[in-house]
Every structure is written in C-alpha cells, then in structure tokens.
Write a structure and sequence with these properties.
Elements (H helix, E strand, L loop, with lengths): L6 E11 L4 E9 L4 E8 L3 E10 L2 E11 L4 E5 L2 E3 L6 H13 L1 E11 L10 E11 L12 E6 H7 L8 H15 L9
Parallel strand pairs: 4-9
Antiparallel strand pairs: 1-2, 2-3, 4-5, 4-7, 5-6, 5-10, 8-9
C-alpha cells in the first residue's frame, strides 16, 4: 500500500438513509495536511450469477430482461442482487438465482471488485453457474417483473455494452467470464 497517497479519516456522518444504501460524508486529511469532505455510498455487497449451459451444441447463458428505474429502460442482465446482512456472497448468489429463475447449480467464484471505489465501499462478486437444474418457479420481490431468456454466449459477448446490454456491472461480469474461459475454452464452444 502506498502510504504517501493515503488520506486519514477524521470522521464520518450519515447524510441520507435510503432503502438500499446510505450516503455518508467523510472528513479526511492528506499526508501534506490538506483537508476535504468526501461523499461515500455505503451499500451492501452485490452479487452476479452467470448461468451457463449448452443448448443444441451452442454455449448459452440464462439472462433476464427487466425494467430498470435508474435508466428508465429495459435491460438484459444476468441474475443479480444484494448480499443480505450476515449472508455470504455465495449464499446470496444461490438465493438470487433461485428467486429470479428457479434454478440451482454448481457455483464457481470468478472474482470480486469494488464497483466504483471513487465513492463506494462495497464489493461485487461474480459467480459462474454450471450444471443448471430447474428446482422451482420464480419467487420475485413485489416490485420485480423479470423475463427469463436464453442467449448464446457469443451474442452476449458481442453485444455487451450496447442496446439492451447497457449495464456496467454486466460488462464486468462478461470480463470475468472471458478471463475464466481462456483456461476453459469449452465455455465458448472452443474445446
């Protein structure tokens, strides 16, 4: 860690209590004595499950289409959600996949990152899910409407970051998937 770049936190105070995150003000001091107030978003950790399977010899993902209130648009995404207090990221991924799709499977953690460390403190974990089994129907939250669709892996990779795939978290998911697929070429149909 670069100690010369670190800022010492003097205090934090809550500015806004929202349903899914809090907004904080942090007073910090740099090594050279400069002081500043910085905004932090305090959010639970997040997870993304990347359900993968073969359909007629073609590698495919299970994806979701849903309305997103922030962008006021319908997006195509992998199942995702918040990690509840006291819950492990893997347990959250298993729960979210089951709630949103009714699927269970074998989970492999691909990695985790801070979604935006400029002002957020949470972590985002990504899981590849294979050996999918349908166990139940959807069990959605009251304000969720999610359509489940099958998308060929190469189509999702090609279109990520455009149109329906306009979601930065999903870009990260595809990046983790592609890095993992380098040593598992069968995931892209390149055995």
């Amino acid at each position: 860690m670069r100690e010369d770049l670190m800022w010492r936190t003097e205090s934090k105070r809550k500015l806004l209590d929202c349903r899914i995150f809090d907004v904080l003000a942090a007073e910090r001091v740099a090594k050279d004595g400069r002081k500043g107030e910085f905004v932090e978003i305090l959010s639970p950790d997040w997870i993304v499950a990347i359900p993968w399977f073969m359909k007629d010899g073609v590698p495919c993902f299970i994806m979701e289409e849903q309305f997103r209130h922030g962008s006021e648009s319908v997006t195509r995404e992998f199942p995702a959600g918040l990690v509840e207090k006291g819950e492990a990221a893997l347990a959250a991924a298993e729960r979210e996949l089951m709630e949103e799709t009714g699927l269970a499977g074998t989970f492999t953690e691909l990695g985790n990152v801070c979604p935006n460390n400029a002002f957020m403190s949470n972590r985002q974990s990504f899981f590849l899910v294979t050996d999918l089994e349908k166990k139940a129907g959807q069990s959605l939250d009251p304000n969720e409407t999610i359509d489940i669709i099958t998308v060929p892996v190469e189509e999702a990779i090609r279109d990520m970051g455009t149109g329906l795939y306009d979601n930065g978290i999903m870009m990260m998911a595809i990046g983790f998937f592609m890095r993992y697929a380098e040593s598992h070429p069968e995931l892209r149909g390149r055995a």
